[in-house]
């Protein structure tokens, strides 16, 4: 006879204490970046599947702030532990997110630790509790100017010098101000009066204090879109539209909208379905017109050569580290080398699509010379039918000038008293 068992019923679990799933999501985000080399943006949907509404934003904020302050958080942890914890130890991860909440995000210490401890149950709970308590009792503060990860610091010091490294460290302390681009540059003063802020170029406004973007006047009506000032430079370099412009690697469409608003007959090409969807939504909201093509530019080609081409090439994105601090921890030299090779292929292919006498702008939001200056050097050797076209100084934002080689290089040292600039490289080339 079979032994009697309890009838199977629905499984019940004790509900987790409030706030714990959000911290678990933050840890998943950190794992995705630090262990698997994914971007925060790409990891967000899967990591935050179990949290909703504002808790998603909180999970993202905990992970992003941890990445901003990682070397300083680790230094604090190492100063309070007898033996250094391995980089990927559960205890270190738990302490990082408890500390960042208490020291940066203003979470009361008891809430910061009580929402983290359940995540190390059955593991190093005592250690985490003890180290956190020691640091709180010592009233530690993180340094005002964050430390950059040592490998990034060394790489950027070699490329740009000490002053740039200092500026980058200051810049990582907080997310950048909000830059917006107006569809009609002629309305800049009108919108400056309505929204406040400062204009650093025609059609640009920089705002420090503002409402959530969708609630701001003019957003729903499509009068403007969010776009970092440095990111507007490549399309500014092409000037007013005169013919057909191909926008390669176009989504989510910041530069497509600039080109369309400047009068170019614009064709926007991108391979990503999700990002193309956002590009279409942006065009719909701003009522700007462009032909949208979903294609891999390494396989696609236009029916006819174009008057102008803008290549905002896929890159390491290290220039936008203020908004995407994950790049500081996941972009290794091998990643830069791979992307530089892809950029070379896209650039050489697109060069054949420029009409004789036409222009091409190549740009990357990178602080790695291999994705900018070196890329240009290689291209000019390979393509004798192209020359660097001088940039009209009036097309550049306040405080930005072309370098001696005719290209534009922006660094976080620039506009230091006005909220700084992202790192960008852009060059305008003419087919002779
Ligand atoms: C720097 S982002 C573009 C940003 C965009 N230009 C803007 O201003 O909003 C690079 C884009 O390149 C696209 N991309 C990457 N490889 C591609 C390829 N082989 N063909 C087409 N698009 C590609 C990515 O999907 C991504 O949207």
From TrEMBL:
InterPro entries: MeTrfase_RsmB-F_NOP2_cat, MeTrfase_RsmB-F_NOP2_dom, NusB-like_sf, NusB_RsmB_TIM44, RCMT, SAM-dependent_MTases_sf
BP GO annotations: methylation
Protein's UniProt keywords contain Transcription regulation: no
Active site: 365 (nucleophile)
Occurrences of domain SAM-dependent MTase RsmB/NOP-type (ranges): 147-432
Molecular function GO labels: methyltransferase activity
Keywords linked to the UniProt accession: Methyltransferase, RNA-binding, S-adenosyl-L-methionine, Transferase
Region (Disordered): 1-21
Protein residues bound to S-adenosyl-L-methionine: 249-255, 270, 296, 312
Domain of life according to the entry: Bacteria
Family stated for the protein in its record: Belongs to the class I-like SAM-binding methyltransferase superfamily. RsmB/NOP family.
Protein name, per record: RsmB/NOP family class I SAM-dependent RNA methyltransferase
The species this protein was found in: Sphingomonas longa
Lineage, top ranks: Bacteria, Pseudomonadati, Pseudomonadota, Alphaproteobacteria, Sphingomonadales
């Amino acid at each position: 006879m079979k032994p009697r068992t309890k009838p199977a019923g629905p499984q019940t679990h004790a509900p987790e204490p409030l706030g714990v799933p959000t911290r678990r999501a933050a840890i998943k985000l950190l794992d995705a970046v630090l262990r698997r080399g994914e971007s925060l943006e790409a990891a967000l949907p899967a990591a935050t599947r179990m949290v909703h509404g504002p808790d998603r934003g909180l999970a993202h904020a905990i992970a992003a702030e941890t990445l901003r302050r990682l070397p300083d958080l680790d230094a604090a942890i190492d100063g309070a532990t007898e033996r250094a914890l391995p980089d990927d130890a559960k205890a270190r991860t738990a302490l990082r997110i408890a500390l960042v909440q208490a020291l940066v995000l203003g979470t009361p210490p008891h809430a910061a630790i009580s929402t983290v401890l359940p995540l190390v149950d059955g593991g190093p709970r005592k250690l985490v509790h003890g180290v956190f308590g020691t640091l709180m009792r010592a009233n530690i503060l993180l340094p005002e100017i964050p430390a950059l990860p040592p490998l990034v610091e060394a790489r950027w010091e070699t490329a740009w010098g000490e002053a740039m490294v200092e500026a980058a460290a200051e810049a990582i302390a907080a997310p950048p101000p909000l830059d917006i681009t107006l569809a009609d540059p002629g309305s800049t003063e009108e919108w400056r009066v309505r929204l406040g802020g400062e204009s650093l170029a025609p059609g640009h406004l920089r705002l420090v204090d503002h409402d959530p973007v969708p609630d701001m006047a003019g957003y729903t009506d499509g009068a403007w879109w969010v776009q970092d000032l440095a990111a507007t430079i490549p399309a500014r370099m092409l000037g007013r539209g005169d013919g057909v412009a191909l926008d390669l690697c176009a989504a989510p469409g910041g530069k497509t909208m600039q080109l369309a608003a400047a009068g170019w007959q614009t064709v926007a090409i991108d391979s990503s379905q999700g990002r193309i969807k956002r590009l279409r939504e942006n065009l719909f909201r701003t009522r700007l017109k462009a032909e949208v093509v979903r294609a891999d530019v390494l396989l696609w080609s236009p029916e006819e050569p174009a008057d102008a081409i803008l290549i905002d090439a896929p890159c390491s994105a290290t220039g936008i580290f203020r908004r995407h601090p994950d790049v500081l921890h996941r972009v290794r030299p091998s990643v830069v080398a791979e992307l530089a090779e892809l950029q070379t292929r896209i650039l050489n292919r697109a060069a054949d699509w420029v009409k004789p006498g036409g222009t091409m702008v190549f740009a990357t939001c990178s602080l790695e010379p291999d994705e900018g200056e070196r890329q240009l050097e290689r291209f000019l050797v390979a393509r004798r039918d192209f020359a660097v076209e001088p940039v009209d100084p009036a097309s550049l934002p306040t405080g930005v000038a072309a370098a001696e080689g005719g290209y534009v290089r922006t660094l976080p040292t620039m506009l230091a008293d006005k909220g700084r600039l992202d790192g960008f490289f852009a060059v305008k080339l003419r087919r002779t």
